[in-house]
Amino acid sequence: MESWRDRAVLVVGDAMLDEWRFADSERLCREAPAPILTLRRRITAAGGAANTAVNVAALGGRALLVAPVGADVAGDELHDCLDRAGVWDRTVSEPHRPTPVKRRMLAGNQILLREDSGDPDEPLDDDGVSRLLTALSCATEELRAVTGGAAPTLVVCDYGLGALPAAVRAWLVAHRHRYATVALDAHDLADWRGLNPTVVTPSFAEATRLLARAAAGFGAPPAPTRTGGTDLHLDHPPNDPADGPSELVVGTAPGGVGRAPTGPTGEPTPAEGRVALTGDGLSVTGAGVTVNATVGAGVDRAVLAQARLAELREHTGADVVAVTLDTEGAIVGGADGAPRRSHSTPVPASHAVGAGDAYLAAMTLALAAEASLPTAAQLAQLAATITVSDTGTCVCRREDLLDALGGAPDGTAHPPLVGTGELDAIVADHRRAGRSVVFTNGCFDVLHPGHVRYLEQARALGDLLVVAVNSDASVRRLKGADRPVNPVEDRVTLLAALSCVDHVVVFEEDSPAGLIEAVRPDVYVKGGDYPPEMVPEAPLVRRLGGQVRTLGYVPDRSTSAIIDRIRAQATLDPPAAPGPASMPAAPATTAERIGGTT
Questions:
Q1: What is the CATH code for 2-215+301-405?
Q2: 244, pLDDT greater than 50
Q3: Which terminus of the chain is more solvent-facing, meaning fewer CB atoms within 10 Å of its CB: N or C?
Q4: Looking at residues 193-213, what average pLDDT do you find?
Q5: Cα angle vertex 89, ends 86, 91, to 5°?
């Protein structure tokens, strides 16, 4: 985060004004069953691309905004919001296009209604496009000048309000080389093919839209479908909000517009290659995505998003794809093909307005600063999560993010060695910070490279790794009277020193079931070559909503094998009598090489 300071970021896209009106209501109107409202407070905030720029500035970056803004009262208020936030305002005045405004009326922090106004009905004229392109070019050079010639970062926010017509999109694609890191947040990602961004952050609905358009050939000639239609068709459900998709229905056209597919779902024809099947109402096949709106609420969106990350990367040309799942967190994937899941805390919808802008800003700054993908994903989720504590447009400030991180390398103020009684509260703290929890257990008697590789692989499955270690008495019951070789104090000290391990806890029982109940891990990991179904704890983990994964052992790397080799070596080379003359001059024995004793 230190390297975020004054990092040059150019934000371009649809800017709007958020207006919040807070009122009291003590009685109903006589003319109709409606509350009578008394206005108490009114606040305004930057919205859309403007709020993304505000979040970049609040997190310590140097944000510059280029966007068309109306020459009206709402535009003046938006300029004031940008000035207060320290955003470099390079917006383009459009006298004939109003500034989009979202007005919310609240009583007791409950949104009663939202009025949208100023959505431009007309596209930018040729003069407006020309002035916007000039502003983009000048802003890019301005940021290069203040950073000593370094290429700036670009963030594109396309919410379909007309700020980024085809000519502007073509210019950004043609000048992609002028920007080091490019982040894209667009309602219709297919419009940006060729940009090859560093990261895209679609919602689940936007990702679904892209997959369906890809299955239809991005406008290729219509192809017959098994339901008798001529092409895949996407339509918003009737109750879908006007400011962006929440869910999409994929049906057939003509005749199927807006309707869920009829007939059996989830059964592809023999010619289709099934990729995944995630619950009633949603099937993923080689031909695309089918969402049945009547049962879509039961769909596991995270599983679907994870199954299609590679395709989303291919269709967008992005290095990183982060599919945001609102209250369910996000699924993030990069070139290594390893999906990363982050979690969020469910909050009222009025608390989450603009949380996606905070996520986008933090993700962009982290990747621009060359953070690893797990770190960038964790910081982005944390930035979004800590902003949703109250009603209003979300802005994550640098100080708040640092406070949430607690100053510790792993993002918490908790020590690595913890007691069973502390574990509940510690895990709850991590979950509030948006982290997914991986849990494993074992004796870890003689720590060896197989253990290290196993724990590193386990840590890669989530944001936090908790290792439960059998006590000495528990090991004796499981392994025999001559085990453990190393006491539990030594075993947990070595485990806690590994960078891939976040917390270590000791348990006395023969089974970790009690700790699993307390931790409720997102992923439970065991070592072995058997399938997850044979893990004794699997039914419990799944009942608690988690996944079970097994990781294969490293050949010839086991505690028992090491102990056998030490004993064999001790038999071949009995110790000499004490004294200086008996000090070995030959190469170190196996025991000495691994730091062990017989």
A1: 3.40.1190.20
A2: no
A3: C
A4: 92
A5: 155
Say how far apart CA 445 and CA 334 lie, in whole Å: 35
Token reading at 420: 């069973």
Nearest to 416 by CA among 455, 370, 375, 373: 455
What share of residues in the chain are helix, strand, coil (percent, to 5)? 35, 25, 40
The CATH fold assigned to 420-562 is Rossmann fold (3.40.50)
Using CA atoms, how far apart are residues 250 and 161, in angstroms rounded to an integer? Answer: 23
DSSP state of 477: H
Q: Considering only 15-29, 412-426, 473-487, 502-516, which range has the smallest mean pLDDT? A: 412-426
Distance CA 461, CA 583 (A): 47
- Angstrom CA distances, 27 to 20, 32, 37, 41, 178, stand at 21, 12, 8, 19, 59
pLDDT at 285: 39
* Helix extents (H) in 338-467: 355-368, 373-385, 398-405, 420-432, 449-459
Q: Compute how many other C-beta atoms are within 10 angstroms of the C-beta atom of residue 498.
A: 18
User: What pLDDT shows up at residue 146?
Assistant: 93
CB contact set of 68 (below 8 Å; sequence gap of 6+): 15, 91, 92, 94, 97, 124, 128, 132, 162, 163
Q: Kindly state the tokens that stand for 25.
A: 């209501």
Angle between helices 49-58 and 73-85 (to 10 degrees): 20
- Residue % of the chain over a pLDDT of 90: 43
Q: Where in the chain is the domain with CATH 3.40.50.620?
A: 420-562
The rounded distance, in Å, linking the Cα atoms of 110 and 385 is 20
Q: Out of 58-62, 112-116, 304-308, 336-340, pick the least confident.
A: 336-340
- Determine the Cα angle at 281 with ends 199 and 184, to 5°: 10
The answer to whether 411 and 405 have CB atoms below 8 angstroms apart is yes
Q: What is the location of CATH 3.40.1190.20 in the chain?
A: 2-215+301-405
Place of tokens 């109003």: 98
Catalytic residue among 243, 357, 445, 522: 357
**pLDDT averaged over every residue in the chain:** 79
Output the pLDDT for position 428: 85
Report the chain's terminal Cα–Cα distance, integer Å: 48
What does the DSSP 8-state code read for residue 398? H
Give the torsion sign (CA, 379, 380, 381, 382). positive
CA neighbours within 13 Å on the CB side: how many for 175?
A: 18
Question: Is residue 261 over pLDDT 90?
Answer: no
Query: 478 CB contacts (<8 Å, ≥6 apart)?
Result: 443, 470, 510
Phi-psi category of 420—alpha, beta or left, where left has phi over 0 and alpha has psi -120 to 50? alpha
- Give the closest residue to 295 by CA, choosing from 279, 306, 284: 279
What's the whole-model pTM score?
Answer: 0.62
Q: Give 487-517 as a 3 state SS string.
A: CHHHHHHHHHCCCCCCEEEEECCCCCHHHHH
Neighbour-count burial for 427-459, b at 16+ CB within 10 Å, e otherwise? beebbebbbbbbbbbbbbbbbbebbbbbbebbb
Q: What is the pLDDT at residue 576?
A: 53
Contact predicate 211/183, CB 8 Å: no
Question: How many of the other CB atoms lie within 10 Å of CB of 147?
Answer: 14
